[in-house]
Specification:
The chain is mainly alpha-helical. Helices cover about 55% and strands about 5% of the residues. The chain has helices at about 5-25, 45-60, 65-80, 110-120, 130-140, 145, 155-170; strands at about 25, 30, 80-85, 85. The protein is globular and about 40 Å long. The protein starts with 5 loop residues before the first helix and ends in an 8-residue tail after the last helix. Residues about 105-110 have low confidence and may be disordered.
Length: about 180
């Protein structure tokens, strides 16, 4: 169906938000298959994409409940998938006794880690400790990663966007906080 005006676009975004909220989120956790929580374990990518979609909706529509859901999913993502300073792709391995698979820093497409870290930036109400952890992860990019960006491209792009936003913000404010 083709959207012809902004009213239809708003209705469509509300409809899609309700679907994501009702079918992909249960008890503060992401469900792997819409409405079928027992069908498979969720991954870091599932959490990153669902949290990012809900956060973008919350930001565009100024929707407090959606923002709360996104913040809870981000917090749960860090709790479930960030262990010992590294990201896990899945919480449990298919091999008994294995603690799950360590995720690569990045993928060919935008990585779940970069999506999740960008989502943290979209949600100002998150605990400061979690925000600090996310900023620390973004700052971890080393010279080697920047020189050979194949496996780190989306993290590099995220860091560059955040640096540009910071510079633009600094240019619009003087040291005492007044607008120039």
């Amino acid at each position: 169906e083709r959207v012809n005006d902004s009213t239809q676009l708003v209705e469509l975004s509300d409809q899609q938000y309700r679907f994501i909220r009702d079918q992909l989120v249960r008890d503060g956790r992401v469900v792997r298959f819409a409405g079928a929580a027992q069908q498979g374990q969720t991954t870091l990518e599932d959490y990153a994409l669902v949290a990012c979609a809900i956060a973008a909706y919350a930001q565009q529509r100024n929707h407090a409940k959606a923002r709360d859901i996104a913040q809870q999913l981000v917090q749960t993502s860090f709790d479930r998938f960030f262990q010992q300073g590294r990201w896990l792709r899945t919480r449990h391995s298919f091999i008994p006794g294995n603690d799950g698979d360590w995720v690569m820093q990045d993928d060919v497409l935008e990585s779940p880690v970069s999506i999740l870290l960008e989502t943290v930036q979209m949600l100002p109400g998150l605990p400061q400790g979690l925000r600090d952890k996310a900023n620390e992860l973004i700052a971890r990019l080393t010279r080697d990663m920047l020189d050979i960006p194949y496996h780190y491209a989306s993290a590099i792009m995220l860091r560059a966007r955040l640096q540009q936003q910071s510079v633009a913000s600094d240019q619009h404010s003087s040291p005492n906080g007044s607008v120039r």
